[in-house]
Write a structure and sequence with these properties.
The complex is a heterodimer. By secondary structure, chain A is an alpha+beta fold. In chain A, 46% of the residues lie in helices and 12% in strands. Chain A has a five-stranded antiparallel sheet. In chain A, strand 3 and strand 4 form a beta hairpin. Classes of the chains: A alpha+beta, B mainly alpha.
Chain lengths: 268, 219
């Protein structure tokens, strides 16, 4: 029985043919005489055969594609996206793709041609220059104009507080209109517009009285200038392409010592 | 004295020839080395060639570890992804195939342990009870036929796979590498980093366990 257990441990070597001749002969002799060990060794051989005969499993047909997708995930490309739109299947049929492109083109055209209609008059950086009359009532300074500079032309007339009223027949807007519609000037950047204004003020003996950032994000400047310099300021600003003001808007003495306060609002 | 320079020249020639032969031999021992180098440089085609060369064997190994096609698919992809990501770490000390099967065996073992912990095999393997043994016997059409034919049968294949699933991971990996994938003891020793004696004794024990299962069900 002990010999059977020892032989049991040598099955692997016997099966693989790794035993020396003497040991091999001894084992074979035992197997010939012992039916239990013979049967057991037969099952050992069958087991090894069963293991090596196991069917080779085949991967699914799309295995390599799946693996490639995992190894090299495709990056999103706008070009591919459009390519897919114009592929008849499976994303969008071709007519829908073309219609989508037409809608995109028309929308882009509208945006370029009429930006203020799409985004409203507050779009972009704008400088709103309130009229001196608005300075009488500080609330007026907070009024944002609905007019954009693209719709305003500088008025080629004499400026100044004592200038006569031009009247509507000259094509100028009335005082009421001006008060309701504070003039707007577009500028690329608010800080650039303020810097331009500061450069102009010393020549006019004007000064920046207050620079206030409103909670709404607007910047309001209060500029003190001599009454007679008003026309100069406006003409300077007009020359800078910044503003145009009608003479009637300057009525009365709203500042101290013959100066006027001009409120300029910068709207983002 | 005149023969002396001639002898040196002959020796040099023999040295050069032997060096050439060694270099040719070395290049033949691992055809994959150049492909690995190219893959590391970002050559997709090179890595695809390696994948195409080994994916069937890797998939089969994965299947034998987990015993299910879906899981095997997932595991085989995980193995190649890990190989792809760690390709720079392949130093070339061993053959690429050895390195790849090292990754495969480690991942397979880990996945097997994970699934076993979650009771994945509990509902899938063949129960051991006597009543179930009768039902297993009923599945086998004719036991008196030639053993080789019997072993090729689907039912026996399932019994063998169930027996493999019940092996502990250390025994399982050796049975898969030696008896199913057909690696030599030397290669297994490299893949598993085990001495040959340990490999053989584990293999023997694993075979004995599978043998007992087969004997119980088929006899």
């Amino acid at each position: 029985m002990k010999q059977c257990e020892q032989i049991n441990d040598l099955y692997l070597e016997l099966h693989d043919g790794g035993l020396d001749q003497e040991m091999g002969a001894s084992l074979k002799s035992h197997l010939g005489a012992c039916p239990t060990c013979r049967d057991d060794f037969m099952w050992y051989g069958l087991t090894v055969k069963a293991l090596s005969n196991l069917e080779e499993m085949s991967p699914p047909p799309n295995y390599l594609q799946q693996l490639n997708a995992k190894l090299y995930p495709e990056k999103f490309s706008i070009f591919d996206y459009f390519k897919q739109i114009f592929t008849a299947t499976p994303y969008l049929p071709l007519p829908i793709g073309i219609s989508a492109l037409a809608v995109v083109a028309v929308t882009a055209g509208m945006l370029i041609k009429y930006p203020e209609r799409i985004f409203g008059p507050g779009a972009g950086n704008q400088v709103a220059m309130t009229s001196p009359a608005a300075a009488v009532n500080p609330q007026m300074a907070n009024i944002v104009s609905t007019r954009a500079i693209s719709n305003i032309r500088p008025f080629p007339v004499a400026y100044g507080p004592s200038a006569p009223t031009a009247g509507n027949e000259s094509g100028f807007p009335s005082v009421a209109q001006m008060m309701d519609n504070n003039l707007l000037v577009k500028s690329a950047r608010v800080d650039e517009a303020i810097e331009s204004l500061k450069r102009v003020l010393p020549n006019l003996r004007g000064k920046l009285v207050e620079n206030k950032l409103q909670p709404t994000g607007e910047t309001v400047l209060a500029v003190s200038i001599p009454q007679q310099a008003y026309a100069g300021l406006t003409s300077e600003l007009v020359n800078l392409g910044a503003v145009s003001v009608r003479p009637e808007t300057f009525t009365g003495n709203n500042g101290a010592g013959g100066d006027v306060l001009l409120y300029i609002k910068f709207v983002r | 004295m005149a023969a002396f320079p001639e002898t040196i020249i002959w020796c040099l020639c023999l040295n050069i020839i032997s060096l050439l032969l060694v270099s040719v031999f070395n290049s033949n021992t691992d055809d994959d080395r150049q492909l690995v180098k190219d893959s590391v440089k970002g050559d997709r085609e090179a890595f695809n060639t390696l994948v195409e060369k080994y994916y069937k064997k890797i998939y089969n190994l994965a299947y034998r570890f987990v015993g299910d096609t879906e899981e095997a698919n997932d595991l085989a992809q995980e193995i190649f992804t890990a190989a792809f990501q760690n390709l720079k770490k392949f130093r070339g000390d061993a053959k690429f195939s050895t390195w790849l099967f090292q990754i495969a065996t480690n991942r397979g073992k880990n996945r097997f342990k994970y699934l076993k912990r979650r009771g994945y095999f509990a509902n899938r393997s063949m129960p051991d009870g006597d009543d179930d043994r009768d039902s297993s016997q009923r599945m086998i059409p004719d036991f008196s036929t030639n053993p080789e034919t019997l072993l090729a049968g689907k039912q026996v294949q399932k019994i063998v796979q169930d027996a493999i699933n019940e092996l502990d991971p250390d025994h399982k990996e050796i049975v898969i590498l030696r008896d199913i994938e057909g690696f030599s003891y030397d290669e297994i020793a490299q893949i598993l980093n085990l001495p040959e004696g340990t490999t053989k004794s584990r293999l023997h024990r694993a075979r004995m366990v599978v043998k007992e299962k087969l004997k119980k069900v088929l006899s």
